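Q: How would the structure tokens look for this protein?
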Amino acid sequence: MRFLFLGDSWTHGTESGKYTEYSKYRFSSLLSRRCNAEEVNLSIEGGSNHSIARIFMEQDLSQFDRVFVQFTYPLRTEFFDKGGNIAKLKIKKVKDTYIENGEEVPPYVQKQLVNPDISPKWERVLFGMIGRIKSISGIMCDDVDWWDAYYEDIYQDEFGKSDEKLFFYLIKNKLKLLNIPHVMTSIDPKCELPIDLQLNQMKYPRANGRISPGGHPSRLGHILICNDILKLL
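A: Here is the predicted structure in token form.
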């Protein structure tokens, strides 16, 4: 059997251990081992519902026996950076953040400043997320980055909900049409769609002692998520 998993950092296993151990402790791996299935995890840290739907549409679904889709916060999105220019702007912003915080700039950041990855690729937009990687376009509107201006003056939650609904039923209806068993989950506490399981619950412990709804699941959290998904199969 082959299982396909799509989602963001929750499905990716972020903070479940060292970076090299994510694939060992995340619920997708635990679930696949319990079912004696091959795990195909195409989740992206910082992914959006748009990226989840895009990657889903790129797959040959006939190769999978079950599909597990984890939706994320509707306000996230992505865009295609054809010229690869955003990578240079983003790594400079990361460096400036370290300097502003009085911290030493890590070697990997210094290396990327000298030789940035400027290949054409999809760029994540993580407006409002805590961390060093934030939305950036390089296009200024009245001294404000375009994405910040977009979320401040244009974006509304109603738009995010509409996109979420479009992506949800696009995926669900295609899987139903192909008669492929599937489980639909979300980490958005405000999700109003008929998902099978809400992952952003107090019952799932968080990494580094964080309190729900902040942070990613701990190893125990991933075990409990795995157990609850198993009950749905």
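The mean pLDDT is 87.

The chain is about 40% helix and 15% strand.

Upvote if useful.
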